[in-house]
Backbone:
C-alpha cells in the first residue's frame, strides 16, 4: 500500500483486464452501478471496475494483481445481503469481484449425499439440481431466487429450516477459496470425517469475504422429503408456542422442518397490503404458529403425527384453533402470509426500527414480552410486528412509529428503542445479528456489544490472513 | 523464551503452586506418571508437574505464569486419544494441564436443547444427565466412559452416530477457552443462529489444545430416541451394503443412527477372543452390516420401517440373511461384536498396521476393494480386518502379518503397506485421519500428504494465536 501510485494501479488494472478478457471486466459507471449499489438503495459506492472471473484461476489472477497494487476487493454474490456487506464503502481504490460467472455445478454424488458447486450458483438452482437427483439441498431462504452459494456461505445464512438442518455452516463439507495474496486454498473435500489439522474452511464461513474469496464449496445433501404436512395454528401467546414446539419436536420424531411464529399484526399487514391473502382461520388470534413437517419415508404417517400433536396441544390449551393444508396450493397460501411480511412492511411505509435478533429457543417468549414492555415504556403506542424462526430462536423484529409521535421525536427516540431491542436480547444470552451478519451496517453494534476477547481474536486472524486489509475492508471487523 | 532461566521457571512454578493450592499441583514422578504416559503405553514424557485447576480463573492463572516463563503446556482430558496428542513429547520445560477437576455441569436447558459443561466432564455422564432431562447428548464413542468434553472437542471426535448427528463440531454451540497469553475467550453462547463476526470457537474444535485450553463448552442436545431398532444383516460385499445404506436412509425417514460394516474376519476375531460372543446368524457371510435406527416419536413404527428395508434388500439381493434384536439384551449382544474389535485385536497379538481412514460414503466399497488388492499384491497373504462407520465413510483399518512372513520382512514392508492404505484413500478423495486426529503420531503423514495451502494457513493461525508455541508443541502443526 505504501508504494501505491496511479501508475501501479493502472498497471494492476491492465493486468486484470488481460487476465479476464472483455466479458470479465466492466468499468463504465452505468454497467457497474448495480454492483456498486446495495439492493435496498444505499448510497452508491465507488469502484475502479467490476471483475467477473469465470474460473478459480482467473479469480486468483485478479487478486494477485490487486494485492500487488494494494487495491481493495469487495466480493459479491447475489448482492441480496441485509447488512451492506457486498458493496464498496471505503474511500480506498477498490474493485468489486462478482461471482456471477462462476456458475458450474462441478460434481453431484447422490450416494455420498454431496454436491460441489461454484460460488455464483443460485441457491434455487442448487435445490432444483439436487432434487432432480432425489436429494435435498437443505438451505431455504427468502432470497433463494437470487442469493448465491458464495454469499450464503460468506454470511452463514440461516433461513426457514435451521431447526432441522442447521445453518449454512452445517451444510459445508469443503471450500475452495482465493486468499488475500492470490494463492488458492484447496479444501474441496466431500468427507463426513476428516480430522487432519485445523478445519481451516470454517474461517471463511461467515467471514463476509474479509478473509478471502470463496470460489467453490462442497455441500452435504439430505434425503429429500417426499411428504410434507403444514399447519397454521392459533396460539394464545409465545409461551404456549414454546410448549407446542417442545412437544412437536419429540412427537414428530424430529421431522419438524419449520416452526415460524407470527403475531396478529403479521396477519393484518398481509391482509391489508398483499393481494390474495385470506385469513385461514375463522377468529383472530393474538399469535400464530406455522408448523411444517417433512419426511423422506413413504412409511411415515406424518398426518397422524401432526393430528396427534394438534390434539394434545388443543387439550392442553396451547393451541385454540388451526388448519392443516390439504393441498400444495393451500400450503403455499399458508406460507405466503409469512413470506410476504417483508413486502407488506415495505408497502406499509411507516418509519420503523428493525432488527434480526436471536435468543435461546426457550427464551423467545420472554424476549418478546420483555422487549416490547421496555420499548413501550420508553415510547408508548408502538406498532410491533415481531415474527420469525421461533424454532431456532431467531426473531425478525420491527417496531413502527405511533401516529401520534412526530418525525422529530421518532428520530430522537430511535437509538433508545434499538438499544432496548438489542440489550434485552443480550441480557437473555442472545445475539444482535442472528442470520444477517455484520457487513458495514451493524459494525457499530458489534463494536458496542461484541465480546472484547472475540473481537481481539478476530483481529489477529484478519491480520494473519489479510495483513494489507484489502479483502472487503470496512466490513465485519470493528 | 529467550530469557528463560532456571530462576524464571522456578518463579513460575511457585506462582502456579500458589494459584492452585495443594490439590491442584502434582510433581512427584509417581503421581504424575499416568499424566505423562499415553494409555497405549508410549514412552513416558517429561514434565515439571501436573496442574489440575478447579476453575477457569485457575486455568488462566496457570497459563499466565507459564507463558511468562516460556513453559509449555500440554492440555489433557481423559488421555484416551489415539494419536499421542495429550502427553508431553518435546524436550522443552513442560507442564501437563489436566482438566480432571473441571467437572461442573453449569447449565442444562431442555427447552433450548442445550447444556453447558466444563472440560473435564466425562462423556458418559453427559449422556446420563441429558437423558434424565429427556434429551439426547448426541455423541457416542467407544471411549465414552473416560473421554471428556475437552478432549472430545479438541479432537472433534466422531463415533457411532455421526451419520445422524454429525461429529463433535456439529454439537458445539459455544466455547470458553484460555488462550496462550492467559486471557479468556468467553464464547459460551447457546444460540442456534449468531452471525456477529467470525465464529472463533471453530478454531478450538479439533485443534488438539494447540491454540488454547477449552475450559467449558455449550452442547446442543437432541430429542431423546425412545425406541431403537437394531439389526445384524448379512451382505455379500460392501457394494451391496452401499445400496442398503442409501435405501435405509430414505425409507427410514432419516432415522438411521448407526450403519457399521464388518467383514467375516471381525466375527471370527470376536468369536475366538471374546467371551460370550455368539454368531447371531446360521451361516457365515463375507460381510455384515449393523444397522440401528431410533426415534423420539411414540407414533413412529420403526419396526415396520426396518422390516420394509429388510424385505426390499432381500428381494434385491443386497442382504442374504439377518436378525432383528428382540430385546435390549439382544441389541447389546449384536453391538458387542462391533465394540469388542479393539479388544479382540489386542488379544490376537499378531503384528499389524492400522489406520483410521475416511473416503466419501459412496466410495467405501471401492476403497476396501482397491486397498486390499494393492496391499495383497505388495505382500500376499495379509489378514484384513477393516470395519467401521460405513454410514459416514470412516473405516478402521487393520492388516496383519501373514504367518509365513518373517518379522524382519514385515518391518521392511510396513511402510509400503501404510503408504498403500493411505494413498488409495487419498486417490478416492479421502483422509488419512478420520476421527483420531493428528497428535504427534500422525504428524509425518500430515507433512507428507497434507495440502500445502492448508498447512500454510494452519501455521499462520498458530503463529497468530500462540506466537511462543507453548500450547501443546509438537502436535498437529507440521
Residues:
Amino acid at each position: 500500500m505504501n508504494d501505491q501510485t496511479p501508475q501501479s494501479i493502472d498497471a494492476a488494472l491492465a493486468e486484470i483486464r488481460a487476465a479476464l478478457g472483455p466479458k470479465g471486466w466492466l468499468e463504465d459507471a452505468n454497467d457497474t452501478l448495480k454492483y456498486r449499489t446495495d439492493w435496498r438503495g444505499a448510497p452508491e459506492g465507488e469502484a475502479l471496475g467490476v471483475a467477473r472471473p469465470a474460473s478459480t484461476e482467473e479469480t486468483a489472477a485478479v487478486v494477485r494483481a490487486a494485492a500487488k497494487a494494494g487495491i481493495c476487493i469487495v466480493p459479491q454474490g447475489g448482492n441480496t445481503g441485509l447488512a451492506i456487506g457486498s458493496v464498496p464503502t471505503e474511500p480506498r481504490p477498490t474493485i468489486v469481484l462478482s461471482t456471477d460467472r462462476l456458475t458450474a455445478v462441478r460434481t453431484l454424488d447422490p450416494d455420498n449425499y454431496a454436491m460441489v458447486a461454484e460460488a455464483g450458483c443460485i441457491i434455487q438452482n442448487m435445490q432444483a439440481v439436487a432434487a432432480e437427483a432425489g436429494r435435498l439441498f437443505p438451505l431455504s431462504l427468502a432470497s433463494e431466487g437470487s442469493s448465491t452459494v458464495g454469499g450464503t456461505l460468506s454470511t452463514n445464512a440461516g433461513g426457514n429450516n435451521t431447526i432441522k438442518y442447521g445453518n449454512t455452516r452445517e451444510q459445508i463439507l469443503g471450500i475452495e477459496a482465493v486468499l488475500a495474496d492470490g494463492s488458492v486454498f484447496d479444501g474441496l473435500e466431500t468427507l463426513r470425517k476428516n480430522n487432519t489439522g485445523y478445519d481451516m474452511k470454517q474461517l471463511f464461513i461467515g467471514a463476509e469475504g474479509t478473509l478471502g474469496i470463496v470460489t467453490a464449496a462442497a455441500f452435504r445433501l439430505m434425503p429429500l422429503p417426499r411428504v410434507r404436512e403444514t399447519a397454521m395454528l392459533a396460539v394464545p401467546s409465545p409461551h404456549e408456542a414454546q410448549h407446542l414446539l417442545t412437544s412437536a419436536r419429540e412427537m414428530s420424531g424430529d421431522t419438524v422442518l419449520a416452526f415460524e411464529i407470527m403475531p396478529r399484526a403479521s396477519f393484518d399487514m398481509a391482509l391489508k397490503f398483499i393481494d390474495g391473502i385470506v385469513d385461514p382461520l375463522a377468529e383472530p388470534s393474538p399469535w400464530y404458529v406455522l408448523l411444517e413437517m417433512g419426511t423422506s419415508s413413504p412409511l411415515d404417517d406424518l398426518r397422524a403425527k401432526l393430528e396427534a400433536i394438534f390434539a394434545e396441544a388443543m387439550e392442553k390449551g396451547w393451541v385454540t384453533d388451526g388448519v392443516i393444508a390439504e393441498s400444495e396450493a393451500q400450503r403455499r397460501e399458508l406460507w405466503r402470509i409469512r413470506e410476504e411480511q417483508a413486502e407488506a412492511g415495505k408497502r406499509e411505509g411507516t418509519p420503523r426500527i428493525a432488527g434480526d435478533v436471536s435468543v435461546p429457543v426457550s427464551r423467545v417468549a420472554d424476549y418478546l414480552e420483555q422487549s416490547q414492555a421496555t420499548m413501550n415504556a420508553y415510547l408508548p403506542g408502538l406498532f410491533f410486528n415481531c415474527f420469525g424462526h421461533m424454532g431456532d430462536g431467531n426473531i425478525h423484529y420491527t417496531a413502527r412509529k405511533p401516529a401520534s409521535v412526530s418525525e422529530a421525536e421518532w428520530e430522537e427516540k430511535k437509538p433508545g428503542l434499538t438499544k432496548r431491542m438489542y440489550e434485552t436480547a443480550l441480557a437473555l444470552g442472545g445475539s444482535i445479528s442472528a442470520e444477517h451478519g455484520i457487513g458495514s451496517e451493524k459494525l457499530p453494534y458489534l463494536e458496542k456489544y461484541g465480546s472484547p476477547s472475540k473481537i481481539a481474536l478476530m483481529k489477529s486472524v484478519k491480520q494473519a490472513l489479510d495483513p494489507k486489509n484489502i479483502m472487503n475492508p470496512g466490513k465485519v471487523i470493528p
Summary: Chain A has a mean pLDDT of 96. Chain A touches chain B through 100 residues (CB under 8 Å).
